[in-house]
Structures are given as C-alpha cells and as structure tokens.
Amino acid sequence: IQSFLKKRNPFAHKGSFGHALLMAGSYGKMGAAVLAAKACTRSGAGLVTAYLPRCGYHIMQTAVPEVMVMTDQHEEILTSAPDDLSKYSAIGIGPGIGTSKETVALFSNLQSYGRPVVVDADGMNILAQHQELLSQLPALSVLTPHPKEFDRLFGTHQSDFDRIQKAGEQSVRLGLVIVLKGHHTLVSTPDGKQYFNITGNAGMAKGGSGDVLTGIITSLMAQGYEPVQASLLGVWLHGAAGDRAAQALSQEAMLPTDIITFLSQAFLELRAQD
User: How far apart, in whole angstroms, are the C-alpha atoms of residue 198 and residue 54?
Assistant: First the structure.
C-alpha cells in the first residue's frame, strides 16, 4: 500500500479528488445508501453524488449534508441511471437497491460508462440472477461479494479454499477484480494475483459493513487509484478502522458507523509511515 499511496497536493481543490456517484437505496434500505455515502466522503473523494429513489431524498440530505442528491422518478426503487454518467470519476452501485426487475435496467447503462465500476450487495444479487450482465461490465470493475453472494454468482462451494480458487479463475476469465469478503478478505486480480488482507475482526460481521467498504473503494477510485490499488487500500483501511473501533468499543458493541468514524485513525497510521 505504501508503494502507491497518493499524497494530497496542498494546492489542490475539490475537483482534484474526483466525483463519485453512488447508485443506492430503496424503500426500507436507505440506511445502506447512507453508510456508503458517509464512507465515501470520509475516504477523501472531492465530490459525492447519491442517486436514490425519491423516498430517500430527505433522508440523505439530512444524514449526510456533504453529499449531493439526485432522485429517480420512482418513489421506492431505482429504475434508471442518471442521464450523463461521463462526468463521474467512479461509480458504486448496489447497496440497498433491491432486486426488482425494474432495477435491473440500471446495469444496461454501465457498459456505456466505459470505466470500471464497483458492484456490491443487491448489485451482486442482480448479477447472479442475470448472468449475462457479467460480461457487460466494464473491464477491471470491482465485485465485492461475501461468501453467500459469491456462491449465488458462481455456484456452491464446499470450502473457503474452493472459493479462493474459483475467485482467481473468474477474475482472469472475466477481467474483473473480485474482493471476496471474510476474515482475511481476498482480492483477486485479472492478472492472476491474489492478496489476503491482514486487518479486520469479527466485530465487523454486521449488516452495513459491506456498504461502508463499497463507499471506501468507490471514493479511492474517484481519486485516481487503479481498481486493484483501490481494492487493496480499501480493504486495508476498512479493516484497520474496524480494529480501532473494536479496541475502543469492543467487537460486540461496535457498529458499521464506527468503522467510518475510525477511518481517520487508519489514514493517520498510514501517513505516519510515509
């Protein structure tokens, strides 16, 4: 991570650090969108826009005032993408979007974007239900499944070792980065390399932690990190912040929002080693 960690130019402005778009949320799952957006802003992106169903407008504007909000025409689900995706430096899609047939249409717009995207949560479940969409994802896009989502996508596996092998094979075959979340999160790359993360703890095994990781990786890609770099740095920061939260609050009591809070300490630890 130290070999590619970027330093922030003291003469930079918000446009220097990218514009991230998060396509997230549905009725009853707006918390996932809020977590991803908070993590995205806390990870250094210059600008963050959340694209939500209309029911999420006031929630996001209140919960994360740093984030700009655009809304779909539908009240409760996402049915389309923003008209012009080209102005965004990176796109994250999936937290809390549900799997309705209308929401599947979101993915038809991603191929025209032409740059890697981050897909998580319900985005993974949509891909599992519509396997043909996998080949339509832009090259070097990042998939962030937990083991059950991975199995829905690539078939049942008898052990973690089988998943590790399959992740490597599918990364190469599809030209995608696969972040297989777990105790030692795996990052598989299209060139056949695999990396295991050394940070993190069992207190992070709670709903919402994955949404935080999506926000972090999307933010890093918006800032100009290559997808593999963003994935490696993102999972390390995510786990390191979780470790700091567990030390302060206990693994039982820590929440995904605490991971976001303690991202500052994870960044400070990295900067102290520069």
Answer: 40
